[in-house]
Amino acid sequence: MQTTRVLARSAPWSTAPLPAGCMETLGARELESVLFTLAQTVEMRDAHTAGHCARLASLSVALGEELGLSEAELVALRRGGYLHDIGKIAVPDAILFKRGPLTADEWAVMRDHTVKGEEICRGIGSLRLTLPIIRNHHEHWDGTGYPDRLTGEQIPLLARIMQVVDVYDALVTARPYKPAMSHAQACRELADEARRGWRDPRLVSLFLTRFPGPESVLAQAA
């Protein structure tokens, strides 16, 4: 079990030597590596999100371990931490970094990043479990999210896990349009969003139990 946990926490793509004659696998791994590089390039477009993907990868794996998920699911969570917003490569800077409110048309472009991200990563067999994270991490428990307006457990579990840690990290990170919340403030906001029907209440409760203070988050994300 310890060996598999180390694998899930290591680099999100494998760097192990390939057996001779596995050119098809090599091609898939090369493409996967390109996608991770592209995703990190998306993150680097915004100085305020530095380290966001790595933190999501670590925190989501920690929650997955608490839930007793399989090694394949833990690896998918780690990959999802890096790839969840890869579709933002298709969002113009004028929309992505706009300081004021987005127009209805601009919101439509922004929301489409989940679908674009899935399209970019589709066709790579090793990302099969990661695709629902990319597509559905903005769904809401009550069905008011996007892109598919899924409700409750219709939302894939891995996407629900990523959503909780994504929201938390966004809350505690300063952005041009808002200050950073403290850990306690962010946890209260998460609990309130669960009560309002936006988040999976069981996963929010698990997050609050697993990360009772900021030091526990920092230790996990280190």
Report on the structure:
The chain has 222 residues and is mostly helical. It is built from 12 helices and no strands. It has helices spanning 2-9, 23-44, 52-66, 71-83, 93-96, 104-111, 113-121, 131-136, 157-171, 183-195, 201-210, 214-221. The longest helix has 22 residues, at 23-44. The chain is globular. The protein starts with a helix and ends with a helix. The relative contact order is 0.12.
* Topology order in helix (H) and strand (E) letters: HHHHHHHHHHHH
Number of domains: 1
Q: Summarize the main sheet.
A: none
CATH topology description = Hypothetical protein af1432
What's the CATH class label?
A: Mainly Alpha
Mean pLDDT metric: 85
Strand content: under 5%
Q: Give the helix level as a range of percent.
A: 55-70%
Low-pLDDT segments? 1-11, 13-26
End-to-end distance, in Å?
21 Å
- The CATH homologous superfamily is called Hypothetical protein af1432
* Computed Rg: 17 Å
Counting DSSP H or I runs of 4 or more residues, the number of helices is 12
Q: What would the principal axes of the Cα set say about the shape?
A: globular
Class from helix and strand fractions? mainly alpha
Query: What's the number of extended β-strand segments?
Result: 0
CATH architecture: Orthogonal Bundle
